[in-house]
Design goal:
With about 190 residues, this protein is mostly beta strands. It is built from no helices and 16 strands. About 0% of the residues lie in helices and about 55% in strands.
Length: about 190
């Protein structure tokens, strides 16, 4: 049991039988009325995004979640398969439970969130930045690097990413998995 003063970004709450993660929160104070706490919530077990307001000091029901490192193995018709790095136990998740499935690379590390009450996985998250190889992109023109122009490139996972003109086929690039944007070129 917690109160509205305990809200933090990333906290998972149980509301009306569903799990939601706190994306953003704040407090509204007025001179006459009591303070109100608001939060923007994203569904963990559904794809809904809602906003909720509580009176200051009201009780909340946070869910304890464990974050464990898993290794991505493969994708088939039943979903995406992962292996626990410690126990070698395998689990399969649906595509909608993974935050950026287009960047999953065979053998890559993924963090899986497990609800400690039910021992069920509730979602998966890739590391914030990953390194992938560019498998196809048009060659850049010499001297055309002065502007911040971008071109499409395909990476080894099959995803398309906008990269600067100086990036060439075969190079390694770092990608932000949250935004899907190019970060930098990686030297081997």
């Amino acid at each position: 049991m917690a109160t509205t003063s305990d809200i933090t970004r990333g906290m998972i709450l149980k509301l009306e039988g569903n799990l939601y993660t706190v994306v953003e929160f704040g407090e509204n104070k007025t001179a006459r009325a009591a303070a109100k706490v608001w939060a923007k919530l994203k569904g963990v077990d559904n794809n809904r995004t809602i906003e909720k307001t509580w009176n200051s000091g009201e009780s909340l029901f946070p869910v304890r979640v464990e974050k464990k490192a898993y290794q991505y193995l493969y994708k088939d018709e039943s979903g995406y398969s992962f292996m626990d790095n410690e126990t070698f136990e395998q689990i399969t998740l649906a595509e909608e439970m993974i935050d950026a499935p287009q960047f999953l690379k065979d053998g890559g590390e993924v963090f899986i969130f497990i609800n400690t009450e039910t021992e069920q996985p509730i979602g998966a998250e890739l590391p914030e930045k990953i390194v992938l190889q560019v498998t196809y992109c048009e060659p850049g023109l010499r001297g055309d690097t002065a502007t911040r122009a971008l071109k499409p490139a395909k990476v080894e996972t099959g995803a398309n990413v906008q990269v600067p003109l100086f990036v060439n086929e075969g190079e390694l690039i770092r990608i932000n998995t949250k935004s899907g944007e190019y970060v930098e070129r990686v030297k081997e």
